[in-house]
Design a protein that fits this description.
It holds the Pfam family Adap_comp_sub. Belongs to the adaptor complexes medium subunit family. The protein is of the alpha+beta class. It has 11 helices and 25 strands. Strands 8, 9, 11, 14, 17, 19, 20, 21, 23 and 25 form a 10-stranded mixed β-sheet that branches. A 5-stranded antiparallel β-sheet has the order 2-1-5-4-3.
Length: about 625
């Protein structure tokens, strides 16, 4: 069972009712046969460990609701706390149990274990995918849930991590869950490929298996592709964009017919083959014609079901995302990393091979490299790596990489916030942008956002040295560089002192809960010093959720705003080069068989989680090992 096969999948609504489900009888038959073989070769009664039959929708929904009620949320604790009981996922004391869960099915008085259940939350839906594993794996997991201790430190040989390493189907199940979530919420995202000769280029879904779009299909009707703009529109804050996604996901009903068609086409008989939604939709809409059949001597790859016809060209974009944690402290070093990818669009007729060498691997300190299935790496060197690939249609990610920033932080400085009273704070920003950066690198825009999900802003006072300010109920946004006023070839200093006032806390909303929960937790607690931190965190987390019950759910998911953590988030976009040094010469791109196709090349970098931690407050960090 080394390949990935899916036994069943379910989509649950916010009220824990099943709105869609699909079972695969062929895979379920294989599961029953495996159970029978295990039962015949074992002296122990197999039904104590595994469930031969899948639950119906009501049984599944009831088990899921029971888990939420027992563990406080759908994902559960993830680590062993005082509320954990033997036989629960959190008893294993591994955070992966927040994503690979088990459900106890109660059928006519008999209880059965359903595992491994991959859980993916998208919008307000929960997607559950159950892959096919061996019965011995389920038995091993159930033994872990009953062990008094866990992990190698406790002398346990088999851990959850070692068990999951034997199950590559878990990865496949996550891929299925993610694409199902994207389909039901309408979140289909292309890798951006910038075109300098036209305002937009066609592109379709960048799925977890690689994306393909369809721009021109012979002389038949062409499927409509979602356009990819030549440049992204800045100015939208991170919170605003997420809220719009959440609203979109709630207002979009599930198209069950399209979902059934996709599942039947992408994973016939329960085995995922092609998870590209747009590709399968186009095949259904347009079918195939005789002009799509390649020469008999040429084998057509699975990632290119159609042959392109039209004007030929190639577009490459190196897109880097910068992640940073800036502390401005002597005892905590700043961290800066880059996640990059080479996006490509090859509008080439036939089935040509494309090759080019990449440069800057040594200077960029590349740590991780991964490639699209269409790529081969025939030549590797210290500072050069040659790529050869047979490109699919549309926009796709040719290569992913992880690297260090060779130019230093594009935004450096500090952020300080001091609460002078319970409801009033004084803050100060002192930043320096693009220090050490030379033309043609250009920062197109830069925005700093101070989020306050737990507090409501009622007044604000401050004058920045540059830029404009806007506020909302739960954030303050500082636009240092507005769109269309880029900075190139020089550095920019920016300071921003100010004060901010918040609405008074309304603790009286949940007084009874705090007392009752504390009393119950103390009664259960025996090791007061070890476990009390978990208890207080749980109380604080529950109180904060109740205090902010009128906020959108997305705000409550900000991971670092609980307790005393304060930070500012930077967003920016830099064009004209890469921050890692990764590059290649467009003139070195060769196409076989040789054709006249112009090569368009662009480079850009944008901010991911670029965090300025409050220098005067608490902040999380990872301790570096001492050499």
């Amino acid at each position: 069972m080394s390949e990935c096969s899916i036994r069943a999948m379910w989509i649950l609504s916010p009220n824990d009712s099943v709105v869609f489900s699909r079972r695969f009888p062929v895979v379920e038959r294989r599961w029953r046969q495996a159970c029978q073989r295990e039962k015949e070769s074992s002296d122990r009664d197999l039904h104590k460990y595994v469930l031969p039959l899948l639950p119906n929708d009501l049984e599944l929904a009831s088990a899921f609701a029971d888990r939420k009620q027992r563990d406080g949320s759908a994902r559960g604790f993830g680590i062993r706390v005082s509320q954990s009981i033997a036989g629960s996922d959190s008893w294993i004391d591994d955070p992966i149990t927040r994503h690979v869960i088990s459900l106890c099915i109660n059928r006519e008085g008999d209880k059965y274990l359903l595992w491994p259940m991959v859980l993916h939350a998208k919008g307000y839906y929960n997607i559950l995918v159950l892959p096919l594993v061996e019965p011995r794996h389920v038995k091993a997991y159930e033994r872990m849930r009953s062990c008094p201790d866990c992990g190698h430190s406790a002398g346990v040989e088999c851990t959850l991590s070692s068990l999951l390493l034997e199950l590559p189907c878990i990865t496949g199940a996550f891929m299925v869950a993610h694409i199902i979530g994207d389909i039901i919420t309408g979140d289909v995202v292309d890798p951006e490929v910038v075109s300098s000769s036209s305002p937009s280029v066609g592109g379709l879904l960048d799925s977890l298996t690689g994306s393909i779009g369809i721009s021109s299909i012979s002389a038949r009707a062409k499927p409509v592709a979602a356009p990819v703009a030549a440049s992204t529109t800045p100015g939208m804050t991170a919170t605003g964009s997420v809220i719009s996604d959440a609203q979109k996901s709630t207002s979009r009903p599930i198209d069950k017919d399209s979902l059934r068609t996709f599942i039947s086409s992408s994973m016939p008989f329960g085995t995922p083959l092609d998870l590209n939604y747009s590709n399968l939709t186009a095949i259904k809409a347009t079918g195939f014609s005789t002009s799509d059949v390649p020469h008999a001597d040429i084998k057509q790859p699975a990632w290119k079901p159609y042959l392109y016809k039209g004007k030929q060209r190639m577009l490459f974009t190196i897109h880097e995302v910068v992640y940073a944690a800036m502390y401005d402290r002597d005892d905590i070093p700043d961290t800066l990393s880059i996640s990059g990818q080479i996006n490509c669009r090859a509008e080439l007729e036939g089935l040509p091979d494309v090759s080019f060498p990449t440069t800057g691997l040594t200077s960029a300190h590349i740590e991780v490299l991964s490639f699209h299935p269409c790529a081969q790496v025939p030549e590797q060197g210290i500072d050069k790596q040659s790529l050869m690939f047979s490109p699919p249609l549309g926009n796709f990610v040719l290569m992913h990489y992880q690297a260090f920033c060779t130019l230093g932080p594009p935004v450096k400085g500090f952020y300080q916030l001091s609460m002078v009273s319970e409801d009033e704070g004084a803050f100060l920003f002192r930043l320096r942008l693009m220090e050490g950066y030379k033309a043609p690198l250009t920062m197109e825009y830069c925005t700093v956002t101070m989020p306050f999900p737990r507090r409501r802003v009622i007044s604000f006072d401050g004058n920045p040295s540059v830029g404009t300010i806007s506020t909302s109920e739960h954030s303050v946004e500082w636009k240092i560089i507005a769109s269309g006023k880029g900075v190139s070839g020089k550095s920019l200093e920016a300071t921003f002192p100010g004060t901010i006032r918040f609405a008074p806390r309304q603790i009286n909303r949940v007084p009874s809960f705090s007392t009752s929960v504390q009393r119950s937790l103390v009664d259960e607690d025996s090791d007061t010093e070890t476990e009390s931190s978990y208890n207080m965190n749980n109380i604080e987390e529950f109180l904060m959720e109740k205090l902010n019950k009128d906020l959108p759910a997305v705000d409550l998911e900000e991971p670092f705003c609980w307790q005393a953590y304060n930070y500012a988030k930077v967003s920016f976009k830099i064009v004209g080069g890469t921050l890692s040094g990764m590059s290649f010469d467009p003139k070195s791109v060769s196409i076989y068989p040789s054709v006249r196709a112009p090569i368009e090349f662009s480079m850009q970098a944008s901010a991911g989680d670029y965090i300025l931690w409050n220098t005067l407050g608490k902040c999380p960090f990872v301790a570096s090992p001492k050499v």
